[in-house]
Amino acid sequence: MATTLLEYFNELRDQNPFSWVKDSEITAVEPGHAEMTLQTNDTEYCNFRGDLHGAVCIGLADSVMGTACFTLGKSVSTIDLNGNYVKAVKGGTVLRGVANVEHSGKTTMVATARIYNELGELVHLARGTFFVLEEKPLPELPWRFIEEDNPDLV
């Protein structure tokens, strides 16, 4: 059972049947913000040149933006997704996605995402528009524990 909202979001993620989810983890959540990592490999994620297939970055961006929307207590579905590839990425790279909600309306939301490689270099930029399916209140849990909140967590 989750003791923080970060754990809650990862427990929900574990229920997702989409195959690459097993290689990803939500690493930070705050209202309107989410961060996620994805461990790629050189077989399932790559094209014939050994570069990550284009769907990997846009899929990660879509997922982390949807999670950022969910941090505001809204269940969403993607209605528009746009991405720009900035740099090629080889298989085996750990990607880090960072997303922010830019607009939180009653029926639609807009979010942006940046995907970085292990060196912290920007490899992909994305923007998505999401349809709000329903209000989904979050459990009453702290977002995360910080050391001063719980000195036993070191």
TrEMBL record:
The answer, when asked if Repeat is one of the entry's keywords, is no
* Cited CDD domains: PaaI_thioesterase (cd03443)
The reply to whether Hydrolase figures as a keyword in the UniProt entry is yes
Which SUPFAM superfamilies does this entry report, sorted A to Z? Thioesterase/thiol ester dehydrase-isomerase
Q: Where is the Thioesterase domain?
A: 50-122
Instruction: List keywords of the entry alphabetically.
Output: Hydrolase
One of the Pfam families matching this protein, by short name? 4HBT
**PANTHER family with a match to the protein in the record:** 1,4-DIHYDROXY-2-NAPHTHOYL-COA THIOESTERASE 1
The name this protein carries in UniProt is PaaI family thioesterase
